[in-house]
Amino acid sequence: MDAGASLPAGAGGSSRAATVASWLGERDSFGSWTARRCTGEAEASLFVHVPESARDAAPGTVPVWIFGHGIFGDPSVYLEDETDPSAVVELSDRAGAILVATTWTGLSRVDIGPVLGVAQ
């Protein structure tokens, strides 16, 4: 989690950057990724929220939700805001479900510039 970031009260979550295998290569003339093999390593963000009700549950008994942020969004907007304005963390807590999220390449807020550049 970024320095100074906090989670909603009672939330059990964290985020961190991890080095992962990258399957993204170069883009073709249409902007599509061309790689079909591992091309090296890349940094990826991983966000995980485990509700208090799931902490002592037996393995395999808790639902896991893969959370996708909105277009040009970021999981931190939904999962690290102390006030939980979108109520995603509250929904996870009520359902007793673990949330897992990452920043989607090509669909996050850092991709707005390149997308606008292609649109011109």
What string, H for helix and E for strand, traces the elements in order?
Answer: EEEHHEH
* Terminal-residue CA separation: 35 Å
The biggest beta sheet is recorded as: 4 strands, mixed
SSE class: alpha+beta
Care to count the β-strands? 4
State the share of residues found in helices, binned by percent.
10-25%
| Contiguous runs where pLDDT drops below 50 for at least 5 residues | 1-11
Helix segment tally: 3
Q: Tell me the fraction of residues in β-strands, as a range.
A: 15-25%
Shape: globular
Mean pLDDT: 75
**In which order are the strands of the major sheet placed?**
1-2-4-3
Q: How large, in whole angstroms, is the Cα Rg?
A: 17 Å
Quaternary state reads single chain
